[in-house]
Amino acid sequence: MDVRTSFARAADGTRLWWRSAGRGAPPVALTDGIGCAGYVWRHLFPQLAARRRVIHWNYRGHGESDLPMDEERVGLDEAVSDLFAVLDDAEEPSAVLMGHSVGVQVSLEAYRRAPERVRALVLVCGSPGRPLRTFHGGAALETIFPWLRSAVLAVPGAARWFLQHAAPTEVSLQIARWVEVNRHLVDREDLEAYLRELADTDPEVFVRMLSSVAVHDATAQLSSVHVPTLVIAGENDTFTPAALSRKMHEAIPGSELLVLPAGSHMAPLEHPRAVADALERFLRERVGADAA
Question: Is the peptide bond before 46 cis (omega within 30 degrees of 0)?
Answer without folding.
Answer: no
